[in-house]
Fold:
Amino acid sequence: MTKQIADFKLVEKRDFGRSVLLRLRSEQALPDIAPGQFVQVRVDGSPSTYLRRPISIHDVDFQQNKITLLVQQVGEGTRHLAAANLGDLINMVFPLGNGFTLPEKGENVLLVGGGIGIAPLFYFAKVLNDKGIKPTLLLGGKTESDLLRLADYQQLGETFVTTEDGSIGEKGFVTMHSVWQKQSFDKIYVCGPKPMMKAVAKLAAEKGVWCEVSLENLMACGLGACLCCVEDTEEGNVCVCKEGPVFNTRRLKW
Amino acid sequence: MTIDLGRGLVLRNPVMTASGTFGYGEEYTDFVDLSQLGGIIVKGTTLNPREGNPYPRMAETPSGMLNCVGLQNKGVQYFIDTIYPRIKDFDTNVLLNLSGSTLEDYVKGAEMIDALDKIPAIELNVSCPNVKQGGMAFGVTCAGISQVVSEVRKIYHKHLMVKLSPNVTNIAEIALAAEAAGADSVSLINTLMGMAIDAERRKPKLSVVTGVGGISNATDAVEFMLAGASAIEIGTANFIDPAVSAKVAWGINEYCERHGFEKVTDLIGALEC
Ligand SMILES: Cc1cc2nc3c(=O)[nH]c(=O)nc-3n(C[C@H](O)[C@H](O)[C@H](O)COP(=O)(O)OP(=O)(O)OC[C@H]3O[C@@H](n4cnc5c(N)ncnc54)[C@H](O)[C@@H]3O)c2cc1C
Ligand SMILES: Cc1cc2nc3c(=O)[nH]c(=O)nc-3n(C[C@H](O)[C@H](O)[C@H](O)COP(=O)(O)O)c2cc1C
Ligand code: FES
Structure:
């Protein structure tokens, strides 16, 4: 997959409080992009942000050369991104990483997202729908407002929800949801905070189900050149930015 | 535009990419036509494989980053068997950055690399701790640097560049010791001011220097060259703009045209006071 560096123009912005949706349009045609891949965004105008920031590709519109990001503000870099104005140019290097392994038609697929980890699952679910696979989604947050674009996700497959405060869906963590008792899956894909991914990975292992997780290690180059982003695996330290961010949990020492 | 650094290392232009920041070059081919570069210095390699340090390995600063990758690599033999065949035909100079924790490691590693036709130079990283000397790096004393450079020189027949650690008080003496022991050139990190000067000839005592540290555009590179560097290395800036190396090469060219320098070598040490 050819990688590009390009300036994108911010053409749509939706504010979700702590998070923001940024729809960005390039002048150039987009290369192939696999679900689960990410971009490295240059953060301009933030004195303390030197490196690019890795952000998952939330949605793609190949007709209009648009990439959409869902960014949660956690520090200076993401705060600056979230403060961008319509018409601003945002420079991105993309598409990076491996992406999710596509399931076979006919398999029962569960996508589990926690917090901002739901971001890459949107494009993934869309691609699955295009392939005639209706995924089941299980999305978790602390509270109702964490479940961004819930109605849009619901369009892409049967969607279950948990919140820690019980404000919507079942109360508790995603691993506690009743869907686990009622349905079985052939493949489980997870993106979210590490403790949550570990918990789902454990549950999947207990059930003997194939499971992939998307890691969010700190990155510098994003290209597999610097070896700053490694995860300790059965084969030793491997680059999350190049060999990941998606890993089969069997490879990880979790 | 070519620059002859000596003993067969001839660069198409002064721009090289710094070890550990450009992988094996392959990671950047979507962004940079490698034939636009003077050379690429590939990842720090050691005789034996190393797992490196545990994650996390970096901290960001407002103007750069600190890293403690710990020389993760699969060793010289793996490089020769698996990586070299993939990169040997790149249309640029491919230099290998060699590290070691004992004298024997450096010598054995250099000997194996000497046999590779398409590697015209080694950049010797002498900043890593020497396990047999209480972990003190070879590069911090004149005796240490003389020893490692002269031993490697005996068996290595191509261009030997020695990369010196900036964390020493007497960088100029150490650089001169490296040269006296047989180094063809030195790469100096953030240390142009530390250059030794021959007062009689009003020239730098060191013959060939590659400047490294904080270079992110052509102006930075030209500054290093005006102050005496024959070539430069670009490191962390590759992370911010993966195409920066070729842009700097182009920018140096443009600078030369604009200022009437016929050859890029005329820039070297051309600082007017
Ligand atoms: C492959 C990948 C995909 C990602 N996708 C998204 C996405 O779609 N949307 C989104 O909002 N974020 C995503 N992230 C996380 C995002 O990159 C970080 O939140 C961002 O880099 C933080 O930058 P900052 O300058 O705002 O915060 P900083 O000032 O750098 O950090 C603020 C705080 O967050 C912590 N922190 C920052 N980055 C990480 C990390 N990677 N892991 C653990 N702790 C961290 C820091 O230690 C610090 O405490 C992704 C990360 C990766 C690696
Ligand atoms: C992630 C990273 C890994 C590095 N690995 C090596 C290495 O293996 N060997 C080496 O000699 N220098 C290594 N360096 C140092 C660079 O080659 C360079 O000397 C340094 O980054 C200064 O240049 P800069 O300011 O342009 O980044 C590394 C630097 C970084 C940021
Ligand atoms: S971030 Fe540089 S190798 Fe992954």
Observations:
- The two ends of chain B are 25 Å apart (CA to CA).
- Chain B touches chain A at residues 20-23, 27-28, 30-31, 43, 51-52, 54-58, 60-65, 67, 69, 72, 236, 238-243 (CB under 8 Å).
- Residues A 226, 228; B 18-21, 43-44, 65, 67, 69, 71, 97, 125, 163, 189, 212-215, 234-237 surround flavin mononucleotide (ligand 2) (CB under 6 Å).
